Amino acid sequence: MKVWVIATRELRSFFDSLMAYIMLVAFLGFSGFFTWLYGSDIFFVRQASLQVFFSIAYWTLFFFIPALTMRLLAEENRTGTIEMLMTKPISDLQVVMGKFSSVMLLIVIALALTIPYYITVASLGPIDHGATITGYVGLLLMSAAYVSIGLFASSISNNQIIAFLLALLISIFFHIIFDVLSYSVTGGIGSIFSYLSISTHFDSISRGVIDSKDIIYFLSITFLSLVATEAVLTRRNAV
Amino acid sequence: MKNKRRITLQLLMILGVVILINIVSDRFFVRVDLTQDQRYTLSDATRNILRDLKQPVTVSAYFTSDLPPQYINLRREFTDLLVEYGNLSRGMVVFEMIDPNDEETEMAAMQAGVQPVIVNVRERDQVKQQKAYMGAVVRMGDRKEAIPLIQSDAAMEYSLSTSIKKISIVDKPLIGVVQGHGQPPLSSLQQALSGLLVLNNVEEVNFYDTIEDISRFQSLMIIGPTDSIPSLHFSLLDSYLAGGGNLLVALNRVSADFNTLQGFAVETGLENWLMDKGVIVEGRFIVDANCGTVGVTQQTGAFQYTTNIRFPYLPLINDFADHPITKGLSNIVLQFASPILYTGDTLVRFEPIAFTSEKSDARSVPLMFDIQKQWTDRDFTRSKLAVAATLQGPISGNLPSRMVVFGDADFAVASDPRQNLQRENVSLLVNAVDWLSDDTGLVELRTKGPKARPLDEVEDGRKLFLKLLNFLLPIILIIIYGVYRIIRNRNIRMKRMEDVYV
Fold first, then answer.
1. pLDDT tens digits for B289-299?
2. Pick from A42, A194, A237: CB nearest B73
């Protein structure tokens, strides 16, 4: 309940500032532009599939999520409101989960606004509904991982810009570097890099297969980052 | 109050547990295939092949171990598949993984038919090329079949299941490919032959050489004759069908000369023989709004460039009947096809199995091709013209027999040995022969894999509307909500101020 109160409060504050609108318009603008108007858009590819959108959202979310999370704890650290928050009868974990949920809700809203894409493509051809749903599931799982990383970065800094850059730096390993390394290294180490790369797991899910190892991978990153964030908050009061 | 050291220790312990869970989950996992056609799940065809195994099958997989992860993943994918084959066959499929890292094992792999491939490997800041083995040999008794290169997903299952099927069939039926009337040589049917040879033996039949006993063939194929066929040969075909034989006819009733840009009818006598059976392959060109493109070289000043222009004489076929021959097919390309009609009696069951789109038509010959023509909806007044059909029943004589007729002969024929035909085109021909031979066990497997899911034809105006609607609608919704929220917040503020004033 307390988590929900924090989440909705944060979400309201997103919508009361320009932040949510800028992010949503930018995300939908980018995604819509490349899905419908330019490049390998849906009418150019001429296939009843949302793969075009998924591959664009894969990149747009990577850049936008750190911008959404940078403020969450860094701002509270800077203004000192975090101390006030800690005096309330709520646990550190509830604070972390509340903030995490607020950004996830915003991402769900952003993805829900792309449902017209799905309806349009489904009306124009025999879309694979299963693969489309898993594509959305893949985007949500990936977002959860990046939101938790962003939240962790925000917890260890009181400067929003540093939090943004730090989140991007950590995410870039999972998004690009591990993938590139996996192609450069042979044997078992190469396999470890390949496993750590988000693209390996996102590609596996977005083709239409829900695999327990992909789910566990995404949940592991999310869980570890959230636990680390909580630990950062707890350490403030530790001796 | 917690101790900082304790927090760090707890964090490290959690990290260790999570890493352990990931290692375990990488080995033991559950998979749910949500794709509509279940393309990442083993097909019923594979299950049937494994269930029917009478003797043990040994698979020797040759995989080089020290490779980049995409190849290591392939090795693991193949191992997982073999484990699943072993379970489904109740232990009849056993396997061994061999790393050809010395001369002896390399030689064994090559002798078995697994050839090395060259892969790029990055080592010490340099990209070097390395020899790698990624193949397998399937053995049953003294028979063996090599898979020279293993590919991922559906191709992996197809190659493994067909290899097992190939070595487990005892008496393969014989298929005859009729030659001698200007038909394309067997070498141009190479891609179809590799599919046909899994379940059948294939031989050429030339009616001119000897009047041989053609009743030994399970099915005959007549593909694209261009010369006139003597009436004696039709009598042979009649008696073959009367004896319960099966026949595949792929006929070019029309042809095009690109030098003169003319289209004309082809007459071999086969069309009249078919007409006697009630099957009319019209001597007309099908045109379809859903079509392929041709590259046209244009000159503007000193510049020469090639543009792809849609050419309705190359119909794309996406509409198929629910029939074993067309199961799983989604996209066939035909070249200068003709429509098929049936006027025969009802004793023979005529079933069209592939159709043109809603916007199609048939043009009479002779005609001149106008590459630059601007096609409009008025050019396509007919719809759903049959381009392939099956016949079952007493086609000739009293015994039941089967026949498949195609209104185009080039769809599975390579004009050049290096030409790579569209996979589904080849599958259509091979599926048809399997159906004639009454063995459609591999049809499902052959057409497995990512399907083309073409968008419907949309007029330019509607297309622009849909593009702008999808681009702008979500953004406008967000802006409307933002404006609503600003107004609401201002009203609340105003109300509060009023309260203070009062």
1. 988 888 887 77
2. A194
Instruction: Count Cβ atoms below 10 Å from residue B90 Cβ, excluding itself.
Output: 10
As given in the structure block, the two tokens for residue A221 are 């990153």
Residues whose CB is less than 8 angstroms from the CB of residue B380 and which lie 6 or more positions away in sequence, other chains included: B287, B288, B289, B312, B359, B360, B361
- In this structure, are residues A218 and A226 in contact, taking their beta carbons and an 8 Å threshold? no
Of the candidates B123, B463, B475, the beta carbon closest to that of A43 is on B463
Determine whether B473 is exposed, middle or buried from the number of CB atoms within 10 Å of its CB (0-12, 13-18, 19+). Answer: middle
B410-B415-B417 Cα angle (round to 5): 130
Which candidate, B241, B285, B260, B436, places its Cα nearest to that of B353?
B436
As a whole number, mean pLDDT of residues A204-227 equals: 93
- In the structure, how many helices (H) and strands (E) does chain B have? 11, 25
Contact yes or no for A186 and B67 at CB 8 A: yes
Strands across the sheet containing B303-317: B291-300, B303-317, B332-333
Q: Do A127 and B453 touch (CB under 8 A)?
A: yes
Mean pLDDT of B375-404: 92
**What letter would DSSP give residue B188?**
G
CA distance B381 to B105: 65
Q: Please report residues of A whose CB lies closer than 8 A to that of B2.
A: 234, 237-239
Q: A-chain residues within 8 Å CB-CB of B466?
A: 36, 120, 124
Q: Which residue of B has its CA nearest to A118?
A: B470
Query: CA-nearest residue of chain B to A132?
Result: B35
Lowest mean per-residue pLDDT among A58-72, B227-241, B301-315: B301-315
Strands B93-98 and B57-63, how do they pair? parallel
Q: Is A37 exposed, middle or buried (0-12, 13-18, 19+ CB in 10 A)?
A: middle
CA atoms within 13 A on the CB side of B480: 6
Question: Which of B2, B39, B475 lies at the smallest CB-CB distance from A28?
Answer: B475
Please determine, for residue B125, whether its predicted confidence score (pLDDT) is greater than 70: no
pLDDT tens digits, B214-229: 888 999 999 999 999 9
Instruction: Please list every residue in chain B whose beta carbon sits closer than 8 Å to the beta carbon of residue A239.
Output: 1-4
- Calculate the average pLDDT of chain B: 87
Q: pLDDT confidence of B277, banded at 50, 70, 90?
A: very high
Burial class (CB in 10 A: 0-12, 13-18, 19+), B127: exposed
B99-110 pLDDT tens trace: 888 888 888 888
In this predicted structure, what is the pLDDT of residue B132?
87
Find the residue in B nearest to A227 (Cα). B11
Top residue of A38, A213, A223, A229 to mutate, by most chain B CBs within 10 Å, is A213
Separation CA B474–CA A184 (nearest Å) = 41
Structure-derived torsion over alpha carbons of residues B489, B495, B498, B500, reported in degrees to the nearest 10: -80
Instruction: Note the pLDDT tens digit of each residue in A28-49.
Output: 999 999 999 987 788 887 888 8
Q: Note the ipTM here.
A: 0.88
Contact: B455, A33; criterion CB under 8 Å: no
Could you give the CA distance from residue B502 to residue B496 in angstroms, rounded to a whole number? 10
**B108 interface with A at CB cutoff 8 Å:** no
**Best residue in A124, A195, A222 for a mutation probing chain B (most B CBs within 10 Å):** A124
